Amino acid sequence: MAFVNKSGGDGEQESTDVAAGAPPAFDVDFDPNDPNQTKVHYDLTGWSLDQRAELAETLAELEIPHIWDGEELIVPEAIEQDVDGLFDRLEAEIGPFPVPLLDDDGSTEFGLDEWPFRDIETLKQALVEAEIPHAWQGRTLLVAGDAEDVVDTLLDAIEAGEVASFDGDAEAPEGALHNLYVAADRLARDAVHGPSRSTLLDLVPQLSPTAPPFGLAVGPWRVIVERAYVLVALFESAAEPELIAAGADDLRAECRPYV
Q: Cis bond leading into 96, ω under 30°?
């Protein structure tokens, strides 16, 4: 979803359900110049023209009261839940959406003046998929300071041609990296946790070391898959809980920088 903040007064929130089906009647008095009316701001920095056009069309169709201020969509607080539901629906249909880098966030710059257009486009898509807060100033990329190492690895991988694309079977199952991390984290703390074992026993055989999730380099993904296979082998050999916990901790450590 877009970055959200509020301004104005502190009126109570009402709601209907946009995402559920038929458009509600938005009988809300909205005066954007009224300082006593609380307003919700959605920062759409980084959205594509097509995504903005789809949003604008939907707002008009549903007759949602709103105004635009540059790259911000502003609505009355009374319909915040409805607009949140709309964003969730749009993200499923036309997302994912980029995570903006806020002005007061620490950032790291990467100058990419020499990069070809195709690699820039691959990088843009990877940053969105990885939900890394970022902004562009021409061909200079600014990313959140705590994402510097991950982006360094991503840039190296794109230059080496090692980033996966959305080409059918060439990609890991949806949510694979997240599910690996969650299961490993739980098993590192509770080596006999049944649901986490079941998750890995089902997921790991579907993984290929040469088919990473989009935006993740083949090199780090290969190590992650190797750690996952080792952990599953420990399950199947009925290893002691201490060994399983250690194997889970190794897998968790490899996944952590990318989730």
A: yes
At 141-151, the pLDDT tens digits run 999 888 899 89
pLDDT exceeding 70 applies to what percent of the chain? 85
Q: What is the pLDDT of residues 196-254, one digit of tens each?
A: 999 999 999 999 887 888 777 777 888 999 999 999 999 988 899 999 999 999 999 99
Task: Locate the domains of the chain by residue range.
Answer: 3-94, 107-163, 170-258
- The model carries a pTM of 0.47
**Beta-sheet strand order (sheet of 67-69):** 3-7, 39-43, 72-76, 67-69
Q: What is the mean pLDDT of the chain?
A: 83
15 — pLDDT class (breaks 50, 70, 90): very low
Relative to beta strand 72-76, strand 67-69 is: antiparallel
CB-based burial label for 105 (10 Å; 0-12, 13-18, 19+): middle
